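Both lines are quoted verbatim for reference:

——
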Amino acid sequence: MLLALVCTFIVLDYFQGPKLSSTQIDTSKVVAQTGQQLRLFADQNLATVAKSQVTVRPAAAFTVSTAGQSIAVQFTQRLNYATSYSVTVRGVTSAYQDQAQTFRYGFTTPHAELYYLDRADSASGAVKDDEIIRSSLRGTGRTVVYSAPHIQAFAAFPAVLAVVSLAGDGTSALTLASLDGGALERIVLPGPGTIQGLQASPAVGLLGFEFTSTGPASGRTYDSTLMTVDLGGAHTVQPVVGLDSKPLGVSDWLFLGGGENIVVQKFDQTVLLLDPSKPGSIT
């Protein structure tokens, strides 16, 4: 009798159509990086969901895909800070029968945060580290995210800070510091030298800077050479190459439009547009 009741409930539940069982989204990343996903998990394998079945409010650009018991809504642009979003998927059906259901989910993105460098007061005579501070734009809260002597520059990513500090011999060090105060990773540079012009493109996880080797100018391996580090990869420093396939020295540069394309100005005032992930893609 008990077995029969259990079987009856299973059958009834099956023919009611799929139900939303869980969701997954990183709200801290959707405001900082493109390509982030809201994943909706059902209790049954699903038929393919078309983009026309999905509504996002407030409006945001997205694509949709279906695999097994999950629907992935991928946001192609960064979402706004401090905003409540709702996602509705209509006409969700099982892969095996056509009883349609509607999935609804809402989430709120965090408020924007500000990072700034608070330098130690050398005039006080006290031994104190420089500090990188995180604060809300609402003016509430102040957290020391990272501290070290002689911090020269930093760039913020969704999960880490890239920090340039000065060693006692005048050379630069590059460190990745977790925003939760945990792990530290020292990035291996192409040799002793100095870093200038640190910039970041958090949306694609790319870090860039100019690197100059120590020693006389005539014998330097690198002289204001543009370097990049892919934080989504092996964290290896890679020189950007020019038309001659040699490391590219620059007088100025910047990431274009928050993506991975870079605009550089050479010492002869030539301006180039390039994609560091595709050597030779220079215009």
Q: What stands out?
A: The helical segments are 2-15, 27-30. Residues 113-274 form a domain with the Methylamine Dehydrogenase; Chain H fold (CATH 2.130.10.10).
